[in-house]
Amino acid sequence: MNEKVLDVNEKPTPGKWLTLSLQHMFAMFGATILVPQLVGLSPAIALLTSGIATIVFIIVTRFQVPAYLGSSFAFIIPIQVATASGGVGSAMIGSMFVALVYGIVSLLIWKTGYKWIMNILPPIVVAPVIIVIGLALSPTAVQMASTIQVDGEPVYNLLHFSAALVTLAAAVICIMFFKGIISLMPILIGIIVGYIYSAFVGILDFTAVLEAKWFVFPEMLIPGIDYDFVITPTLLFIMVPISIVTISEHIGHQLVLGRIVDRDYIKNPGLNRSLLGDGLGTLLSGLIGGPPKTTYGENIGVLALTRVYSVYVILGAAVFAILFSFLGKVMALIATIPTSVLGGISILLFGIIASSGLRMLVDHKIDFGNQRNLVIASIILVIGIGGATIKFSDTFEIEGMALAAIMGVLLNLVLPGKSKEKLTDDTE
Question: Taking a C-beta distance cutoff of 8 angstroms, is the pair 128, 305 a contact?
Answer without folding.
Answer: no
